[in-house]
Design goal:
The protein is 78% helix and 0% strand. It is mostly helical. It is rod-shaped.
């Protein structure tokens, strides 16, 4: 039984690595979102000829500034799309870990053994539930990020400061990943390591 629990704990160590990767991606994702949001907010002012003052005498300045901002926005949105692929890779790893957990579960013949505990070590049922929750949380958050990027892209055509602020809150909060619940999962799985 202890060997089986060690296999589960290895899966959770891999899950923790993926979570660290996710958090590193999240930092860049939020930064790129802020950059894109700032550009989108400036577009209206950039397109207003009255904002150029004496620079209006420079031929093509309005078009050049607008084109530079649009190029930067395109680059930023492309980087965010690439980030989404990285987030998707994390979700696929969580899915794989969950599938492997289901395979370990299938090898257990007895329901009693699935719910059996040895000291403070978790039971198999808790391990599977934890992996399942981690997978579901990250998958839901990935889908939210896809929706946010789509919404951000549509705001280029019709900027709305209120919408940008709301999207930014969702970006930073990651509402589908409940930190207390994640910590509880790891506390249960690695209870014997907590001092």
């Amino acid at each position: 039984m202890e060997a089986v629990i060690r296999k589960w704990q290895q899966k959770f160590r891999k899950a923790k690595e993926e979570m660290n990767k996710w958090e590193a991606l999240q930092v860049g994702w939020v930064s790129r979102f802020s950059n894109a949001s700032s550009i989108i907010q400036r577009l209206e002012a950039i397109q207003n000829p009255g904002n150029y003052g004496v620079l209006r005498c420079v031929k093509g300045i309005e078009e050049a500034v607008l084109q530079k901002q649009m190029d930067q926005l395109e680059t930023t949105l492309l980087s965010m799309k690439n980030d989404l692929e990285e987030f998707r890779g994390c979700v696929l790893t969580f899915e794989k870990l969950h599938r492997e957990g289901l395979q370990i579960l299938k090898m257990e013949q007895s329901k009693r053994r699935i719910e059996e505990r040895i000291g403070v070590k978790p039971c198999i049922a808790e391990c599977l539930k934890g992996l399942s929750l981690l997978y579901e949380m990250h998958q839901s958050e990935y889908h939210l990020k896809c929706s946010i990027l789509s919404a951000l892209s549509s705001l280029v055509l019709k900027p709305s400061p209120g919408d940008l602020v709301a999207l930014q809150c969702l970006m930073v909060d990651q509402p589908n990943i409940l930190n207390n619940e994640v910590q509880h999962i790891f506390d249960v799985i690695f209870a014997e390591e907590i001092k």
